[in-house]
Design goal:
The chain has 364 residues and is α/β, with parallel strands linked by helices. Helices cover 42% and strands 20% of the residues. It is built from 14 helices and 16 strands.
Length: 364
């Protein structure tokens, strides 16, 4: 299922085998929460050549409903995307006030933002939804505490997560799907260690590192990642959830992380911050009003090929939806080429130099 091909100090380059193909790691997944990218079509996603994308099983369970996706033949056929698809379970929606009603030991009480209907998301219900959707890689249901939770709250959270994971594993019967466990523990080293060790004991197909990049200091995040990767087995993939800035990704890769996802690149794009091979630029600033050069000389995406900074700034200023599409596409495309460069540098044994270069270009 997973094989490490090359290692450069802590950084790993590998292959993840799934029902819909082989994904080269490390990779970054564009987010298609509702089986569609924000301002991007499935054709846009295919054009940028990602190793995988990620949707959200609970959101799809609410609308359009997993029965419709099952009748379509699964999410790949439903959204016309034939490469690797991950599904998150819905635990992350606990952090959204528009969803969360409360938590019990049975599961998470949600209220649908679509029609206001109440739902109790149990591990069993989450697993059934994910099996109906037929993504390649799915997550067990976890309890996600917000940053700033007390140690007592984190202890309660990992108790629920561990119980729900045991139930999730018992309820998951689709052997074609890979099931990942999610390590929690907040920013408390002993709790992060305890949760990671428990997840390893359940022997999942892969392991996600959850509950981070929620507002904690970056060094604390990396400390927790280091604890997790020191415990997780070498022959299983490691997925750091919700991390999408280039400077954070290279640091996590150095700690042995293989998989990433985040709305960060497209969220930045919608707010006019563009990622380039020379660092970030704010495309809506006055200096680009008459700049008829390409966004990034080193990028071969159609946005850089066909449009100028001046035009992108104009679209930003009039807040046109097409501008959001072009900006979102470029940042997403950039992330795929960025991950290709990471894999190349690991293969060539030069990753640390590239890591330092990115850290300097993208320092805050």
């Amino acid at each position: 299922m997973f094989e490490v091909i090359k290692q450069d100090n802590g950084a790993r380059q590998g292959k993840l085998r799934t029902e819909h193909g082989i994904a080269s790691t490390p990779f970054f997944m564009p987010v298609a929460t509702r089986a569609v990218g924000r301002y991007m079509t499935s054709d846009d996603l295919k054009l940028m050549r990602p190793e995988a994308i990620i949707a959200n099983a609970f959101v799809l369970y609410l609308n359009p409903g997993t029965e419709l996706i099952r009748k379509a033949g699964g999410i790949h056929k439903f959204m016309n995307f034939d490469k690797v698809i991950f599904n998150d379970c819905g635990g992350f929606q606990m952090l959204k006030e528009s969803f969360l009603e409360g938590t019990t030991n049975k599961g998470i009480k949600f209220r649908s933002p679509f029609d206001g209907a109440p739902h109790l998301l149990t591990p069993e219900k989450a697993m059934q939804a994910e099996m109906d959707i037929k993504a390649d890689v799915v997550m067990a249901l976890d309890d996600v505490p917000p940053f700033g939770s007390t140690k007592e709250q984190i202890v309660d959270s990992i108790k629920r997560t561990h119980d729900w994971h045991k139930r999730s594993k018992g309820a998951h019967t689709d052997k074609k799907q890979l099931l990942f466990g999610i390590c929690q523990g907040g920013t408390y080293p002993e709790l992060r260690k305890e949760s990671t060790e428990y997840m390893v004991s359940l022997d999942f197909d892969g392991y996600s590192i959850g509950g981070l990049c929620l507002g904690e200091p970056k060094q604390k995040m990396l400390e927790m990642v280091g604890i997790a990767t020191s415990i997780l087995p070498r022959d299983k993939p490691r997925y750091l959830m919700g991390v999408g800035s280039p400077e954070d990704i290279v640091e996590a890769v150095a700690h042995g992380v293989d998989v990433f996802d985040s709305i960060y690149p497209t969220q930045n794009a919608r707010h006019d911050t563009m990622f380039t091979s020379k660092g970030k630029i704010k495309i809506d600033t006055a200096k680009y009003k008459e700049d008829f050069t390409t966004l990034d000389d080193n990028c071969d995406c159609f946005v850089c090929r066909d449009y100028t900074k001046a035009y992108l700034r104009y679209l930003a200023k009039i807040d046109d939806p097409m501008g959001k599409r072009l900006k979102s596409y470029h940042n997403s495309y950039f992330m795929q080429r960025f991950m290709e460069n990471i894999r190349m540098h690991i293969k060539e044994g030069t990753f640390d130099g590239y890591r330092k270069e990115i850290r300097e270009l993208y320092k805050r």
